[in-house]
Design a protein that fits this description.
With 776 residues, this protein is of the alpha/beta class. It folds into four domains: 219 residues, no CATH class; 171 residues, Foki Restriction Endonuclease, Chain A, domain 1 (FokI Restriction Endonuclease, Chain A, domain 1, Alpha-Beta Complex); 199 residues, P-loop containing nucleotide triphosphate hydrolases (Rossmann fold); 127 residues, no CATH class. Helices cover 51% and strands 9% of the residues. The chain is built from 35 helices and 18 strands. The strands form seven sheets. Strands 9-12-15-8-16 form a five-stranded parallel beta sheet, with helices on both faces. The protein has a three-stranded antiparallel beta sheet with strand order 5-7-6. Strands 1-4 form a two-stranded parallel ribbon. Helix 12 crosses helix 15, helix 21 packs across helix 23 and helix 33 runs parallel beside helix 35. The chain starts with a helix and ends with a strand.
Length: 776
Amino acid sequence: MDADQLRNQFKNEFLRYRNNTWSEWHQGYLAFIKEVADTKFETFSNPEFQRRLWDDNPITSIGPGNAITVEGAYKDIEIIQKLWSLHNTDTLASKLSRELHLQNEFSSILEAVRIKHSSSGKNPTARLLRVFAALLPREILCIVSTPWLKNLKDELGTPLRGRPIIVQHVYLQNELRKGLHIGDSLEEAVDVNMFAWWLAVQHQQKVDDKTGKTPSPEHITTATESPSLTILPVAAQRKGLFYVTDNIDLLRTVVETASAGTTREELRDLILEERLNLNSKSADMIINQAKTLGLLRMENNTYFLTELGEDLRDNEPIDGVFVPTLVRRVFGFAHLLAIARDANWVIEKSTLLNKMRGIYPAWTTTFAPSSLTSWGVQLGLFEYHKDAAGQLNVSTTDCGQYWASGLPDDMGPWVVEAESKTEREEPDELPPIPDKSSLEPPSFSLIADHFRHENLLLPVRFLNRLHAALHAVETKKFVLLTGLSGTGKTSVARAYASSYCRAMNLNTREHYCEIAVWPDWSDPTGLIGFVNPLHGDPTFQRTEALGFLLKANDNPDKPYFLCLDEMNLARVEHYFAPFLSAMEGRPGKQVLKLHAYEDLIDNIPPAIPWPRNLYIFGTVNMDETTHPFSDKVLDRAFPFQLWDVDKDGWREAKVGDPENTPEVLEQVYPVLSELYDALYPVRRHFGYRVFDEVLSFCTLWTQASVFAEAPMVEGIDAAVYSKVLPKIRGEDTEVFSNALANVEKVCTDHNLAQSAEKIAAMRADLSALGLVRFWS
């Protein structure tokens, strides 16, 4: 993030947020910092003052860090004097020697408090960081947990990998101060600290928006040091994760090798050299594990590091690297933390493993639960110890309690049945790849006759262009439908598939498959499945898309239509790589690779011939939540843009629909038409979905008795306020300013009082702040 963006967010968004939502926190934070700065040693060394410094510090909540108490430190004059020397030292120097001095002092005090006063014998890291933040507000941020500090670094684009924690704080504080052109008063120091937390929250909200998670309200109202974790639906999670001795060190070796790009063969050879007890298949499992954990991505048959892989290579804390992914993508890991939490952090190992077995009946032994527990131990979340009776227990560390505090309320079902497997005949070898599809497509005129009955509003000749694109290249039956949300992109894919199938007397449901793309797809496994090594023999975790592809392979004389909805929520060139490679393969070599093993795994072959009877649609929205397409993708597809709405065509279609009331339509249509025209120049107009839903809302408004006394104009006003205005956002340009003025005029002309008032307020904000959005 550049300095101009930083200053713009600080002045136009953060300060307003601080004065409204965070006013109470701001007042308490500033008052405490001033009190600490003004205190004399006599007061500072008082046990009650030290208790407040360590325990009742209003700067931030430390979440599970509260479990480690340090009461003895309140009266320990040696520790108090060390803290006082920091408090009484010039804090404006920012030389490297200063950073290292503070880091050494932090480590020294932390070790002394742990040995002499920690209630559990563990490091009170969060507590001491909060003390440092009170003593050194110009250098130490109010962010005391690694994941939230990483959010800030990611938002600023400042990795700082491998640097000690205090050095990171000093560097980030200094960068923020320079970027904001801000002074060194205590008031300004508090602003810098709160702004740092605000930026970390903004980054987390972006992540939550992409994953569909609702952010925790505490993070929005104050600095609450708990992680933000999400869990995929059970069907999208992997069922357990194997563990080998020194697994994390082995993964470190893998990512170090992949730093400059490497092949699977090179990685396999390296693993076999590092671990003489592993065989080739086990090495492949390790490589797949690195992909599962989001450390590697593949491009052009070469593995490269992801950002997470770079974090592991550069010695970022391993719990921050692995735990969010394990909780999100590996079934059972979140349950492991929850079981330990519900057992008050200590549980018999045998009891824990049996509870884990109970959540997934396919785990007929304790192998998978033991592997997950071993991961937890290696990540520092758990420790093994024996009680007085010699019973082996699992004890949750402070680190484990911290991560458990971020578990979502809805963790999904606690007992999950094993997936059923579809049996298929095992071919002896990959069948020869045909030069041409054996599918005989129906005539275009017959498809068009059926398509007309779908009642879609499309540009003239659109069907002609779509049909030509899907049949122009034998191996590239791939189109991208881009444009405005609500213009019927997915409906076009369904309608074409339905018309094609009806023209051939086929059941559309058996030949059309619609798959929603997930934002966290970083490799092909979310689409085509993966090898699960946690059984006696490796099994294949199937997906709906894989089953569909295998049907297409088994029936080359019939068409199959695959629609990838919201295709660019994830990076297409990453998860779609096998498809892209297969489309462009050399004649006779066009195969879709399904897994890296040489033999069939659970009746799934290593590869199948690229299905010449497969038609692929990708629906695409282009906004700040999606990824752009690389040339590699565009070279293999025909993109079509659906951007304009046929307003008159929509009106004519609704006139003939018996479910609509003509009187309502005639009142609703002029308003929507004029709003559409006003917003079109700034690309904030709306699609057929909004037209339909506003009309449905207003029709119900007239029919429901509860609205009997309410005039129609109130219903239109409410619908416009809810369905049209929320998408409006932009910067202070002439074209956008004119668009807002035109929208306000439409609302005023049609007596939409609530909507007109909102637009007037947005225009005022635009003039004052230089940018505006509905939700501000």
